[in-house]
Every structure is written in structure tokens, then in C-alpha cells.
């Protein structure tokens, strides 16, 4: 008899939070790695801890344009004598003797004999005679060697996503090549004789294959190697061959359509024969039908066929799986509270992710409005939205002025 702990065997609709927890338990982090050069590292995930090759900063330097001097030389009556300049890349050479100062630029090394910098706006120059307004303390406007970190200190840990800031940090610490996890390979395709390539004429009952392009776009944002296998005709052996090809070359296989109870095509038949697949019914809207399992060593995710349902299930269910498989930590989605500007219709029973626009009124308060019709076939609603309004299962609709939970889109949809 099925137990409560077996989510795949429950006959009732599964809450999305329960579904994602169950899904995450069934995928593993890909641990294969490779060495990449810094210029090719954007979007990759570190497979090793990285320590700095240098002190940061590597030398005492000025935090601003001004004059460097010894703080104890200021007596408030006698100007200091200007003896030279220190520029970034062209430092002052030698010792700055008592009673002297050096013109210095931001980032330039502080000369020997100097311990303080005063900004140029608080200095009066008369030839080489420099009158300096005393700063508040010795060491003002000086960035000391290794004050950010010492040579050998771990800066970035394994599992760190390499974004733009991380690229700069890696360059700063002198890391020109390092080990990263290999990119995930994700194969995807569509099935259906009704699907036609973009750019061709539509016949009776035919539609353009839009889901494949939405999936491709989201995969590109996920920093994986995507393998587009195109549109597969409604032929059992053609579909079987497509699944075999996808499973042989990818870590994950994604399809859209063919996972609903009433679907009368070959997709479910082939999946049952070639893999270990469970068809789930989720308490979410859009996106009730979802298939998950394995085809040989590849993870399989079967998305609903309706365009919005396909995108929402990818965003809420597939994206976290890709994060874990890439070795990235799971981050709870950012949510906030906003005031609803209109009435919302909803029936209790499923968690709904309604497409909406988050903005701020003149008083600076967050407010949110629907993009219009919420049909799972209205893909244009996704292009107009910048967030989801999350309505829980027991919600029976809301009136304007209610406070609602809003989830702004992350980079996958943003």
C-alpha cells in the first residue's frame, strides 16, 4: 500500500513546493570538471576553491587624488614642499623627507615616508609650497596593503557561479585559468504533426512550434549546452529514436506536450517502454500535468503543451533541477508584498501563478496589476509581465486593495 512519503504514488494533486522537494531528491550534481581560461569562464561554476595569488591591495595606495605626506609634519603654520608625483603605474621613487609632500593620484602607491593623503580640494598650492588642511586622523585616505585580503586567502569557493563581478575578482587575484564543472547538456524537441516551422505557411489545424523556442531561450539563460533536436513527427519509431538520441547525448531531456491524461499520441507509450517515468498531477495553474523520470542516465522532464504552462513549469520545476545539477546552491525565490490594483478571479484547489506587472506608485508603495487574460495559451501575457502573483490553493479570489505575494522574474524570464 502506498505510503504518505511516496509523492509519486499520491492520487491527489501535489503542491508545487512538495513537488520540487521530491524532484530535487532525485537528481544529482554533475561532478565532471575541466580547466577553462578566465575569458571563457562567464556563466560557469567553480569546481575548486580559489585563493588569491597576491595581497589586495598589493601595496599601500591612495583612495583619491590629492597629496601624500607624513601626518606628524603638519603643524598648521608652515607649508610642505612639493618634491614629486606618484601616478598609478608610475610611482614616486625614493623617500619623502620630513617637511615634504608628493602629488598623488587615485590608486597610486603611497611613497615611503608618507602615511596620509589629503584630497586636492582641501589643499592650497603656491608653486611648490603646499598648505594642507589637516585630515581627521593619520592614515586618512590610504588603502593599506592586504587590507581587503592577504595572499593565500580563499576568495571564491567551489560551487560559486561566475558572473561579471566574479570575473573581475578572478582577474584581481591573478587567476588566469582554473577548474569548473562541465556544462550540462540538455536535449529538447517537440512532437506533433500539427507543428510547423516558423517562416512556413500554416495549413488547416496547424500551428507554429513556439514552445521549442521558449525552451531554448530559457536554456540559454540557464548557461547550459542546449541540443535542439527539432520537431519529431507523430510516429512511434521516430519518437523512440529521438528519445534514444537525446538520452545518449544529454544529461537532461525536455519535451513539451504529450503528458496530459487525455493525450492520444505515442509520446507516453514510448516513455513507458524506454524509461522510468512518472506522470504527476500538480496543484498548480498553469501547469497541472508534468512528467519526470530517467531515460538511461539522463533526467527527463515532460512539460505541458500549452505555451504558458510549458514556461511556468520550466521556471518553477526544471530550473531548480538545473541549478542543483550544475552544483549551485538552492536559493529560495525572492518574493515581496504588493497591493492589488484590481479584482482577481480564482477558484480554490490549485496554487496559481498569474502573470502581472509590478510597479511603484507616487508614494513609493509596491502595486501589481494583471497583464490581462490568464489563459495558459496566451503566451503574450508572459512578454508583458515582470512577475507572478502567487495565489495559494485555498484562495477563492481577491478584491482590489488586497495584499498579495509577488515573485519578480529572475534572469530566466527577465
Automatic annotation (TrEMBL):
Keyword Transport: no
Residue ranges constituting the MoaB/Mog domain according to the UniProt record: 187-324
Gene3D superfamilies in the cross-refs: MoaB/Mog-like domain, MoeA, C-terminal, domain IV, Molybdopterin biosynthesis moea protein, domain 2, Molybdopterin biosynthesis moea protein, domain 3
CDD domains per UniProt: MoeA
SMART domains assigned: MoCF_biosynth
Cofactor(s), by name: Mg(2+)
Pfam families: MoCF_biosynth, MoeA_C, MoeA_N
UniProt cross-references to InterPro entries, sorted A to Z: MoaB/Mog-like_dom_sf, MoaB/Mog_dom, MoCF_biosynth_CS, MoeA-like, MoeA_C_domain_IV, MoeA_C_domain_IV_sf, MoeA_linker/N, MoeA_linker/N_sf
Keywords for the protein's UniProt record, in alphabetical order: Magnesium, Metal-binding, Molybdenum, Molybdenum cofactor biosynthesis, Transferase
Taxonomy, superkingdom: Bacteria
Catalysed reaction equations from the record: adenylyl-molybdopterin + molybdate = Mo-molybdopterin + AMP + H(+)
Top EC group: transferase
SUPFAM superfamilies hit by this protein: MoeA C-terminal domain-like, MoeA N-terminal region -like, Molybdenum cofactor biosynthesis proteins
Pathway stated in the Swiss-Prot or TrEMBL entry: Cofactor biosynthesis; molybdopterin biosynthesis
Enzyme Commission number(s): 2.10.1.1
NCBIfam families the record matches: Glp_gephyrin (NF045515), molyb_syn (TIGR00177)
UniProt xrefs under PANTHER family: GEPHYRIN, MOLYBDOPTERIN BIOSYNTHESIS PROTEIN
Family: Belongs to the MoeA family.
Known function: Catalyzes the insertion of molybdate into adenylated molybdopterin with the concomitant release of AMP.
Record-given protein name: Molybdopterin molybdenumtransferase
The species this protein was found in: Shewanella youngdeokensis
Amino acid at each position: 500500500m502506498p505510503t504518505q512519503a511516496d509523492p509519486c504514488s499520491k492520487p491527489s494533486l501535489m503542491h508545487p513546493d512538495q513537488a520540487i522537494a521530491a524532484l530535487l531528491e532525485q537528481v544529482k550534481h554533475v561532478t565532471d570538471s575541466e580547466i577553462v581560461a578566465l575569458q571563457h569562464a562567464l556563466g560557469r561554476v567553480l569546481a575548486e576553491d580559489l585563493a588569491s595569488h597576491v595581497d589586495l591591495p598589493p601595496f599601500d595606495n591612495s583612495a583619491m587624488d590629492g597629496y601624500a605626506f607624513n601626518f606628524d609634519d603638519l603643524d598648521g603654520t608652515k607649508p610642505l614642499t612639493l618634491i614629486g608625483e606618484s601616478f598609478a603605474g608610475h610611482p614616486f621613487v625614493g623617500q619623502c623627507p620630513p617637511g615634504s609632500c608628493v602629488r598623488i593620484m587615485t590608486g597610486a602607491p603611497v611613497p615611503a615616508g608618507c602615511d596620509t593623503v589629503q584630497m586636492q580640494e582641501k589643499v592650497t598650492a603656491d608653486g611648490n609650497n603646499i598648505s594642507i588642511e589637516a585630515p581627521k586622523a593619520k592614515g586618512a585616505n590610504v588603502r593599506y596593503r592586504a587590507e581587503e585580503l592577504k595572499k593565500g586567502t580563499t576568495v571564491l569557493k567551489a560551487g560559486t557561479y561566475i558572473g561579471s563581478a566574479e570575473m573581475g575578482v578572478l582577474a584581481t587575484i591573478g587567476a588566469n585559468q582554473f577548474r569548473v564543472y562541465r556544462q550540462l547538456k540538455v536535449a529538447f524537441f517537440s512532437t506533433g504533426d500539427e507543428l510547423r516551422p516558423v517562416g512556413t505557411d500554416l495549413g488547416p489545424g496547424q500551428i507554429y512550434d513556439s514552445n521549442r523556442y521558449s525552451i531554448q531561450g530559457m536554456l540559454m539563460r540557464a548557461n547550459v549546452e542546449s541540443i535542439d533536436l527539432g520537431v519529431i513527427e507523430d510516429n512511434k519509431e521516430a519518437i523512440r529514436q529521438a528519445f534514444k538520441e537525446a538520452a545518449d547525448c544529454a544529461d537532461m531531456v525536455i519535451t513539451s506536450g504529450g503528458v496530459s491524461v487525455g493525450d492520444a499520441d505515442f509520446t507516453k507509450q514510448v516513455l513507458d517502454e524506454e524509461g522510468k517515468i512518472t506522470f504527476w498531477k500538480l496543484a498548480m495553474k498553469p501547469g497541472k500535468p508534468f512528467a519526470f523520470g530517467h531515460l538511461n542516465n539522463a533526467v527527463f522532464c515532460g512539460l505541458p503543451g500549452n505555451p504558458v504552462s510549458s514556461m511556468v513549469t520550466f521556471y518553477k520545476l526544471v530550473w531548480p533541477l538545473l541549478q542543483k545539477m550544475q552544483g549551485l546552491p538552492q536559493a529560495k525565490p525572492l518574493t515581496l508584498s504588493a497591493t492589488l490594483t484590481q479584482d482577481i478571479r480564482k477558484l480554490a484547489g490549485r496554487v496559481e501563478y498569474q502573470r502581472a506587472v509590478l510597479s511603484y506608485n507616487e508614494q513609493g508603495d509596491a502595486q501589481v496589476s494583471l497583464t490581462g487574460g490568464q489563459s495558459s495559451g496566451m503566451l503574450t501575457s508572459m512578454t508583458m509581465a515582470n512577475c507572478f502573483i502567487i495565489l495559494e490553493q485555498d484562495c477563492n479570489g481577491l478584491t482590489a486593495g488586497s495584499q498579495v505575494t509577488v515573485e519578480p522574474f529572475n534572469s530566466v524570464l527577465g
